[in-house]
Design a protein that fits this description.
This protein is mainly α. The chain folds into 2 domains: 117 residues, no CATH class; 214 residues, 2-Layer Sandwich (Fusion Protein Consisting Of Minor Coat Protein, Glycine Rich Linker, Tola, And A His Tag, Chain: A, Domain 2), CATH 3.30.1150. It has 7 helices and 3 strands. The longest helix is centred in the N-terminal third of the chain and has 117 residues. It starts with a helix and ends with a strand. About 5% of the residues have low confidence. It holds the Pfam family TolA.
């Protein structure tokens, strides 16, 4: 484009020079005049300097006009290029805004889909919780029926014992057998106590390891509370056992005195002691196991509460408030669901957030204790 402008200027310049030369030639007189008497004369040509100056000025002005025209053309093209660049930038900006708007719309649609998916997941979890509650109710009914059956069996055993009292033909031999059975029962009880102690020690060691992985501070505090509670309960159990032993010793002494009077009554008392002792021991073993499970559930509940309180964001408004939570855990302690039973709303929201932060609670190896802990209710009170 610039080469064309230069070519145009050159043509104009050549044209002006040609015009100037033509004017100069036009002003000259090339005609021949005959000389007067036999001689040659030279005819002079007069050139007007003013006219040449005027023509030179015109040529100069034309050149300057051509330069101004060329400069104006360049300026016009520059403005056109700038306008084109501005329009292109505006077009790109509009395209970018349209792209961003489309991206925002896609993001909003994705978030809406995610929200709907989350809502369906919560609904499914609530449905599963209802189903598990129904199963738990059915299990409770079965347990009640089994308890009734056990009671019927106990009564049947009692009736059998009463009938056994009528058997008086087995005298000293039956008494010896009763004593032997009592010794064997004592040995079996001691074995069970040893096995129970070993299992408790192994369970305690495993719990300590898992608790150390979860929170060292929670382990220390929970262990301290559990040991204090265990000592208190052990002292109570020891005291009860001593009182029961004294009572049984007094009864045995009384029975021995009565047996010295009448041999037949001694034999009957021995049979009564055998059957009653076996039944009491069976009930005692069952009661001790239930008490052990209840103690372990309470101890783990204290650990869970401590872990929740460590992750609880405490506010001044929580002072004096409490929240009752119901947690549903998996077999390895993962939190499947947590709901508010009752209590302060703000505190319960903070407590549920703390449960989500913990995400996984320690579980014992004993399946019966773990089963009790999978659906546990806790009362959270800010410290």
């Amino acid at each position: 484009m610039k080469n064309n402008n230069y070519t145009g200027s050159t043509v104009i310049s050549l044209f002006i020079h040609a015009l100037l030369i033509g004017l100069l030639l036009w002003g000259a007189d090339f005609t021949k005049k005959k000389s007067d008497v036999g001689g040659n004369t030279i005819q002079a040509v007069v050139v007007d300097p003013a006219m040449i100056h005027q023509q030179a000025t015109q040529i100069k002005e034309q050149r300057e006009a051509a330069k101004r025209a060329e400069s104006a053309e360049k300026e016009r093209k520059k403005k056109q290029e700038e306008q084109a660049e501005a329009l292109e930038k505006q077009r790109k900006d509009e395209a970018e805004r349209a792209r961003q708007l489309k991206a925002d719309q896609l993001k909003a649609e994705k978030e809406a889909r995610e929200a709907e998916k989350q809502r369906k997941l919560v609904a499914e979890q609530q449905k599963q919780a209802a189903e598990e509650k129904r199963k738990a109710d059915e299990a409770a009914k079965v347990a009640k029926a089994q308890a009734a059956k056990a009671e019927a069996e106990r009564k049947a055993k009692q009736e059998a014992a009463e009938k056994a009292e009528q058997v008086r033909q087995q005298k000293l031999e039956e008494q010896r057998k009763a004593e032997e059975a009592s010794r064997q029962a004592e040995l079996e009880r001691q074995k069970q106590e040893a096995a129970k102690k070993k299992a408790q020690e192994e369970a305690a060691a495993e719990v300590k390891r898992k608790e150390a992985e979860a929170k060292k501070k929670a382990e220390a505090e929970a262990k301290k509370k559990a040991e204090a509670e265990a000592k208190r309960k052990a002292a109570e159990a020891k005291k009860k056992a001593e009182a029961e032993a004294k009572r049984k010793a007094a009864e045995a002494k009384k029975k021995a005195e009565a047996e010295a009077k009448k041999l037949q009554q001694q034999k009957e008392a021995a049979l009564n002691d055998m059957f009653a002792g076996l039944e009491a021991e069976s009930e005692q073993r069952g009661g001790a196991k239930g008490k052990h499970i209840a103690d372990e559930v309470a101890r783990y509940g204290a650990i869970y509460k401590q872990m929740i309180q460590q992750n609880l964001l405490v506010d001044q408004s929580f002072k004096g408030q409490e929240c009752n939570l119901s947690m549903r855990l998996s077999a390895d302690g993962l939190v499947l669901d947590v709901t508010q039973s009752n209590g302060d709303g703000a505190l319960c929201r903070a407590a549920k957030s703390a449960v989500v932060k913990v995400s996984q609670f320690p579980m014992p190896d004993d399946p019966e204790i773990a089963k009790k802990l999978r659906n546990i209710k806790l009362t959270v009170t800010p410290q």
